[in-house]
Design goal:
Elements (H helix, E strand, L loop, with lengths): L3 H12 L16 H17 L2 E4 L5 E5 L8 E7 L12 H17 L7 E6 L11 H6 L7 H4 L8 H7 L16 E9 L4 H4 L4 E7 L1 E10 L15 H20 L3 E4 L3 E4 L9 E10 L2 H22 L2 E10 L2 E2 L2 H13 L4 E6 L5 H4 L5 E6 L15 H20 L2
Parallel strand pairs: 3-4, 3-5, 5-14, 6-13
Antiparallel strand pairs: 1-2, 2-4, 6-12, 6-14, 7-10, 7-11, 8-10, 9-10
The structure holds (2S)-amino(hydroxy)ethanoic acid and manganese (II) ion (2 copies).
One manganese (II) ion binds next to loops.
């Protein structure tokens, strides 16, 4: 059985590799704190006896060789980066529980037929570079030329960030999409309250909600706050109108089938006594049905046309990230479900509202996810918490699922 204390101690140690911030853990990709966390993960993998390599994208792969090097391998892991002021379970629990499963395999003395590899992946969160870029590099969905196109919020290109992090700035050997893989498994905290409220140990994820990010730029005219209301071209007010209108629309029409969030908004010139000439804000759409995204696209076009007329501004929108709703692989789901049943755990089939690296790997390999409870659903917050016992039960399910998948043809 998994060692709850060992798992928790590794997570707690990881949590300290953080930029100084108001609260919680902040570890953006390719930063000095990311480097310290990566070095710690590599050292723990070596301690477990894995063959460790860091590829040209900074992805860490810890390999436990199987008896048949040609058998399609089993991969498991998650992201090592965090959003700002986060907890230390999102992503990290998936890496450390996969490492625990590897250690359980080692300690049990069993020999897998298939290679088993543990992965620690950068750039899953969009806190620095576009989200899911690390797994997209491993899945061959981002190419060398993208390294000069993708920029962080300071304008640094991905290639520059990789090189200053000590990587070659090229992608030799990163794309693993052509390799035979039996399953990519990702353990993740639920990031919702359902498992805890229903007193269950495990969520067997059957699909992952799509994730659709837009940047909206509103342009008006700067003028003095004494300008009469009817004569303004107030980009800030127009932006707030779009956000409140689309939020109300989604709440009234989609009732839980979709969500929309404005997490970032910047005004220019950003002065108390100047009517904003420009407002730039984000919209994050989530839904399990592609049709909802399509409908909201059309609705937003209409909304923008009305706001442009009403506020005498111009509005542009840019799709920043677009990953459709993604089903898990039936055979992998079945292995996870059987593992939970054999362990006598409480489990349920469920969808994931949050996005994950697994939804990118699903484009090239069979994918499945193991959810473990999130205390009161907190996530992207220092209040994030999953008990050591729940982490250990998740690692047990991962271990059993690996053994089931290993025995299959
Ligand atoms: O945004 C998400 O769904 C995930 O936390 N990256
Ligand atoms: Mn997250
Ligand atoms: Mn995550």
């Amino acid at each position: 059985m998994a060692d709850a204390k060992r798992i928790y101690d590794r997570l707690k140690t990881l949590s300290a590799f953080s930029e100084k911030n108001e609260e919680g853990t902040t570890r953006l990709s390719y930063t000095p704190e990311y480097r310290r966390a990566a070095d710690y993960v590599k050292a723990q993998m070596e301690e477990v006896g894995l063959q460790v390599r860091e590829d040209a994208a900074g992805i860490i792969w810890g390999r436990l060789p199987g008896t048949d090097p040609n058998a399609p391998k089993i991969l498991s892991g998650s992201h090592l980066d965090t959003v700002r002021c986060s907890g230390f379970y999102d992503g990290q629990a998936g890496i450390i529980c996969a490492l625990e499963a590897a250690q359980m395999i080692q300690e049990s003395g069993i020999q897998l037929k298939r290679d088993f590899e543990v992965a620690a992946i950068p750039m899953e969160e969009g806190a620095r570079f576009p989200n899911l870029s690390g797994s997209k590099l491993a899945a061959g969905l981002l190419k060398e030329e993208d390294l000069d196109q993708l920029r962080d919020t300071e304008g640094i290109t991905l290639r520059q960030a990789m090189q200053s992090y000590g990587l070659p700035g090229r992608l030799d050997g990163v794309d693993r999409s052509g390799e035979p893989v039996k399953a990519f498994l990702e353990l993740h905290m639920e990031q919702g309250p359902i498992l805890e409220e229903e007193g269950l140990d495990v969520g067997v994820v059957e699909s992952i909600f799509g994730c659709y990010w837009k940047t909206i730029t509103v342009r008006g005219e700067v003028s003095h706050p004494s300008t009469p209301m009817e004569r303004r071209k107030d980009a800030g007010l127009a932006a707030c109108r779009i956000v409140t209108d689309i939020s109300r629309h989604v709440e009234e029409v989609y009732q839980g089938r979709a969500t929309v969030t404005c997490g970032k908004m910047r005004f220019h010139p950003d002065e108390i006594n100047a009517i904003p000439s420009r407002a730039v804000f984000s919209l994050d759409f989530r839904s399990g049905q592609q049709q909802c995204f399509d409908e909201l696209d059309a609705w937003l076009e209409e909304e923008i046309a009305q706001v442009e007329r009403a506020y005498r501004v111009t509005v542009e929108q840019e799709v920043f990230s677009n990953t459709p709703p993604t089903p898990s692989d039936g055979a992998v789901v079945s292995a996870i479900r059987t593992a939970a049943q054999e362990l006598g755990l409480g489990w349920k089939m469920m969808s994931s509202g949050a996005g994950h690296d697994a939804m990118i790997f699903a484009k090239v390999w069979p994918m499945g996810m193991v959810f473990i409870p999130s205390h009161e659903g907190y996530t992207h917050s220092p209040k994030e918490y999953t008990s050591p016992e729940a982490l250990a039960r998740g690692a047990d399910v991962l271990y059993e699922a690996i053994r089931i998948l290993d025995k299959e043809n």
